[in-house]
Design a protein that fits this description.
206 residues, mainly beta, Jelly Rolls
Length: 206
């Protein structure tokens, strides 16, 4: 009398179900966004209301990072599309050239507290360049989407140490912005998190 039950268990184990993520978003956690400069006294990590991107005459290149916690995606899922959504802190029209990476490090990493720790971030092999011409101005509190960063997330979820609800660390480095060109995004500290950075992902799980 146990054979039907055993057969049923085998059928259940071999059944493949398809789960599609419907573009959920993950908001950065409290104190999990930051920025750092590359020159002189600005070689330190900042956590302020606004996150600068670009190149400042004093600070040099501005770089920014975002730690998204408990990203609920299965290991080796197919990432169909992904992007960062930032909200402009004010109106800007400078031309920016930046590069987006993931931090190819195990879950549980924390955001860096020092310039040295920021420099120790291990980048993904995948990256996406984001060029923002002056012809695409930002108005204050306008939401701005990055290019598709699916390749970066795909590399992260394909890692052997990736598990569902791991943290995911994305950061942006300046690569070729002219000195004096800066745009600022709202951090989670701006207006009690109303304009916090977000990670949007569309994915398929088997």
């Amino acid at each position: 009398m146990t054979l039907p039950l055993a057969s049923a268990l085998v059928d259940m184990e071999t059944q493949v179900s398809l789960v599609r993520g419907s573009s959920p978003f993950y908001g950065v956690g409290s104190n999990d966004d930051y920025h750092w400069g590359e020159t002189g006294a600005y070689q330190q990590v900042y956590r302020e209301d606004a996150i600068p991107l670009g190149e400042d005459a004093s600070a040099g290149d501005w770089n920014a990072g975002f730690l998204f916690r408990s990203v609920d995606i299965q290991r080796a899922a197919t990432i169909n599309e992904a992007h960062l959504t930032l909200t402009s802190e004010d109106a800007y029209s400078d031309t920016l050239n930046v590069r987006i990476f993931g931090a190819a490090m195990p879950s549980g990493i924390v955001t860096p507290a020092t310039y040295t720790q920021a420099g120790d971030l291990v980048p993904t092999l995948a990256y996406v360049d984001w060029s923002i011409p002056s012809a695409l101005p930002w108005t204050q509190y306008q939401e701005v989407d990055s290019p598709n960063i699916a390749s970066i997330l795909q590399e992260l979820v394909n890692r052997k140490d990736w598990k569902r609800k791991n943290n995911m660390h994305i950061y942006i480095q300046d690569i070729d912005t002219a000195t004096g060109s800066v745009r600022k995004a709202c951090s989670i500290r701006k207006n009690s998190g109303v304009y916090k950075p977000e990670l949007h992902v569309s994915f398929t799980e088997l």
